[in-house]
Design goal:
The complex is a heterodimer. Chain A is of the alpha+beta class. Chain A has 15 helices and 16 strands. Helix content of chain B is 26%, strand content 20%. Chain B is globular. The chains are: A alpha+beta, B alpha+beta. Bound molecules: protoporphyrin IX containing FE (2 copies) and iron/sulfur cluster (4 copies).
């Protein structure tokens, strides 16, 4: 790292020469230590704003106070915009006496476009609006996926929202409600994509805007969409409903490219890094350096396709798998989602309607049956997958389990009936 | 007094359509990409079935961007790119261009402006972080500061691709853990039960919801000094801090007893192994602003050994599954304690019920 930037006026370490904010800076010896080093410094960023903005002068003071005392000093409250119940994260300072200018420092959660695409024009426009009504500080993006406009007063949350809402931006979720969704770049730029992440994301979230903007669910509910099992959106573990693209016909193999790959990387590399890494031993390198794929045993893990991006790709009969019930630690510990739908096509409008209706059924059943503050995955944990499936009208399926029951303590006097149902389902479809 | 303006009703437009902001080549080839390569760290080259090509330059940011940074980055994108940008889930910017010749000038402009290009392939990409003292109401530590300190040290691993596979690091500044699973996760771990501010409970607390929030039923309603309050069975309490968000008087954060713990081997992808949770490897790490050197040293040590010992394409979790946990503790020289043995529900499944033992 060069100590002297070539173009100091256009550099991450730039500070204005003139201070136009009227409040003197607080001493920030600890934060100052986060200004050195090669990674762009958020502290320098905050200071730049503080050169023009008294609220940020005091914010820096409070943050330094946190660093010194190793405690946080924000408390929540109730702030909302007219017509909505959620979407604002209110923050009131507990040390407002010392730092009065940042006594109110609320955040607005705004939903990003599916795939997080922006033009520079739009980024500048959002930045200008936020500069007018808030601190100017924007986080791209929060852990739930929102654009977070950090730092404004109660009054200005309404003004800012009114302005950006007019040019196409809407609040996200906060509280017990359907939350902001996330989808990967997917079909827009990724050859692994097996679905239209964009369309699924907008279809699902925009169908529940009432449940997002007027929080009345037992707890949060998140949708995340990944185009393939690489699950770049972390949906299995972090979404109540994960929609993940996959395919059910054979993967595509371009044997000419396979041979080229073997020729450049060598057989040992291919055997060690592709063939022997397949979790189900579905791959084998033939004597002529072509690749044999046992597609019936391929579990669509994506590994070989990730390594040999030119030679291998997902098949043509694409669709999605749906998993329900992922969440982080509170309250029963982390949970992964569970397969609810092993495969469904998403081609026609009817297919998409089916997806939407399934989400409605799941949310309705969960909302009616969950305890207060209980995530969907916890409801499944408490009542058992079978009761949950009966509630949402989905039949049991062996793809939902890693292995059958290992304990005999269960009452099975309706075995014949259940076996009959399975047979009928098999003959039906 | 003037008449108050009629309130404006919101337009419930929901998720904006991304196509209006998308690079035209991405709109044109939507769903029709053929393959990609990484010509150098920080750059992706995607080729569409139509033959169209697009180059992506990935740039690390500090996540919190002010007007100056945003406009400066936009200036670079307008001058050297084509005006289109997207963000990854880990707060990296991706700038798409239709011409390979634009890549080097873009990289140079970002590097000259102090923004690193990298985070692709087997690198340590940007740490995904939470809000911390800057903005959350319950944090035990900061997040942006931890990330800045750590990314300063891992800078070279961001701008190079020399890890066995990609490394995703996460942070969480409370034990609700709003950061995700990580190959390495640096999370707050409280070590003492909450100190209850009884005067406040009587005024602000919704007691039934607090009692219900505790994962181990350690909270009981009680009368303290003649006023309704709560008491915590300190023998039962696991110091998780879950009672603090609904009840601020349950003061869980403490300048000394709030520590950090390090977890490894979490993974979201389905590639090779199924998705995995991260597992505890170190705790009692001091919460030491502004640069958290102790946590940093442990993370760097784990990365150093992972880099030496793991095979290509093994994520941290895959690697440890292969070499086994005893070897992991041996190689990293981290102490193995009774706290590593899981006693939460289902914990018995994590015990070794075999004679599979490495010597
Ligand atoms: C299903 C049955 C019951 C449940 C789930 C239940 C639950 C609770 C809960 C959660 C609290 C704490 C309330 C608060 O913090 O304000 C509480 C308090 C209390 N309950 Fe119950 N309870 C049940 C039955 C009873 C019965 C049958 C009695 C008496 C015969 C009783 C007497 C009390 C008393 C005296 C308190 C303490 C009130 C105070 O803190 O001032 N409860 N109960
Ligand atoms: C009029 C009848 C009863 C009243 C007013 C009553 C009231 C209560 C109350 C206030 C509690 C404490 C609740 C708490 O700590 O949250 C309790 C606990 C308990 N009661 Fe009763 N009870 C009655 C009848 C019974 C009967 C008939 C049984 C058993 C056959 C029973 C078994 C228990 C048990 C086992 C607990 C302890 C639960 C635990 O600590 O986990 N109770 N009862
Ligand atoms: S989840 Fe799959 S389709 Fe989506 S961006 Fe990641 S690799 Fe591509
Ligand atoms: S995608 Fe995964 S499971 Fe399928 S063949 Fe490749 S490595 Fe094996
Ligand atoms: S991890 Fe906890 S303290 Fe940190 S931002 Fe998330 S909820 Fe707040
Ligand atoms: S810290 Fe956790 S375990 Fe302890 S009383 Fe609070 S909720 Fe219960």
């Amino acid at each position: 790292m060069a100590d002297q930037p070539k173009n100091p006026e256009k550099h991450a370490s730039y500070l204005p020469k003139e201070k136009t904010s009227t409040k003197p800076f607080h001493d920030t010896p600890m934060l100052d230590q986060l200004e050195s080093g090669p990674w762009p410094s958020f502290v320098t960023g905050l200071k730049r704003i503080a050169y023009e903005n008294n609220m940020m002068v005091d914010l820096l003071g409070q943050l330094e106070h946190s660093y010194k005392t190793r405690l946080g000093y924000w408390k929540g409250g109730t702030v909302s915009v007219f017509g909505y119940g959620g979407g604002i994260i209110p923050r009131f300072s507990e040390v407002a006496k010392m730092f009065p200018e940042s006594k109110e420092f609320h955040t607005l959660r705004i939903q990003p476009p599916a795939g997080n695409h922006y033009t520079t024009d739009m980024l500048r426009q959002l930045s200008n609006s936020w500069n007018k009504y808030g601190s100017g500080l924007i986080a791209f993006h929060g852990q739930t996926g929102n654009i977070m406009f950090i730092g404004t007063t109660t009054e200005n949350t309404q003004h800012f929202f009114d302005e950006v809402n007019e040019y196409g931006w809407d609040l996200g979720g906060a509280g017990p409600c359907v939350r902001t969704g996330m989808s990967c770049v997917g079909a827009a730029r990724c050859e692994q994509s097996c679905c239209s992440e964009h369309k699924i994301h907008r279809l699902l979230v925009n169908n529940f805007l009432d449940d997002m903007h007027r929080p009345a669910l037992p707890y949060k509910f998140k949708f995340k969409v990944s185009g393939c099992p690489n699950d770049c959106m972390n949906s299995i573990q972090r979404a109540d409903m994960a929609v993940i693209g996959t395919w059910r016909d054979d993967m595509k193999v371009d044997q000419k490219e396979v041979k080229k790959f073997v020729a450049t990387k060598g057989r040992k590399y291919v055997i060690d890094n592709v063939v022997s890494r397949c979790p189900t031993n579905a791959l084998s390198l033939n004597d002529d350096d072509s690749l044999a794929v046992d597609n019936r045993n391929c579990v669509r893990c994506m590994h070989c396709i990730n390594v040999m991006t030119k030679a291998l790709s997902p098949g043509d009969d694409k669709g999605v798998s749906i998993l329900i019930g992922g969440k982080r630690t509170l309250k029963i510990g982390d949970t992964m989602g569970t397969v609810m739908v092993p495969f469904m096509k998403l081609d026609t409008d009817e297919d998409y309607d089916k997806l939407k209706e399934m989400a409605e059924t799941i949310i309705d059943f969960w909302a009616e049956n969950a305890l207060e503050h209980e995530r969907c995955g916890e409801t499944i944990d408490r009542i058992g997958l079978v009761n949950f499936l009966e509630g949402i009208g989905i039949d049991v399926d062996p793809h939902m389990i890693s292995r059958p029951r290992e304990c005999s303590y269960v009452r099975m006097d309706t075995w014949e009936e259940e076996a009959e149902k399975w047979k009928q389902r098999k003959t039906a479809g | 007094m003037s008449q108050a303006a009629a309130p404006r009703f919101p337009i419930e437009s929901g998720v904006p359509d991304g196509f209006q902001y998308m690079h035209p080549l991405m709109v044109k080839n939507y769903g029709n990409w053929k393959y990609h390569e990484r010509p150098r760290p920080g750059v992706l080259h995607h080729v569409a079935k139509s033959g169209d090509e697009i180059w992506t330059v990935r740039v690390g940011t500090q996540r919190q961007l002010g007007a100056y940074e945003l406009n400066m980055l936009c200036d670079i994108i307008d001058t050297y790119g084509e005006g289109y940008v997207r963000f990854t889930i880990r707060s990296n910017m991706e700038i798409m261009v239709s011409d390979a010749k634009k890549v080097e000038p873009l990289i140079k402009a970002f590097t000259d402006a102090g923004y690193p290009v990298g985070g692709t392939g087997p690198s340590v990409t940007m740490i995904s972080h939470t809000q911390g003292w800057l903005h959350c109401d319950i944090p035990g530590t900061d997040a942006s500061g931890v990330v800045k300190a750590m990314m300063d040290d891992l800078y070279e691993e961001f701008t190079n691709e020399r890890m066995p596979n990609r490394v995703h690091i996460t942070t969480s500044c409370c034990q609700i853990n709003c950061g995700g699973q990580g190959d390495i996760a640096i999370n707050v771990q409280h070590t003492k039960p909450p100190k209850i501010n009884h005067d406040l409970v009587a005024n602000v607390c919704e007691r039934p919801s607090v009692v219900a929030r505790c994962p181990v039923a350690a909270i009981r309603p009680a009368i303290v000094n003649g006023k309704p309050s709560l008491e915590v069975d300190e023998k039962k309490c696991i110091c998780c801090g879950a009672c603090f968000p609904p009840c601020p008087p349950m003061q869980i954060n403490d300048p000394d007893h709030t520590k950090l713990a390090i977890w490894v081997g979490g993974k979201h992808s389905n590639a090779r192994s199924k998705p995995m949770f991260h597992k505890l490897v170190a705790a009692g790490v001091p919460n030491n602003p502004p640069r958290w050197p102790e946590a940093n040293a442990i993370v760097k040590n784990i990365l150093r050994i992972y880099k030496q010992d793991a095979k290509d394409w093994e994520r941290v979790g895959d690697w440890i599954e292969r070499i086994g946990w005893p070897r992991f503790f041996e190689l990293t020289e981290l102490p193995f304690t009774k706290f590593h043995v899981d006693n939460w529900r289902g914990g018995r499944n994590s015990l070794n019920a075999s004679t599979h033992i490495r010597f």
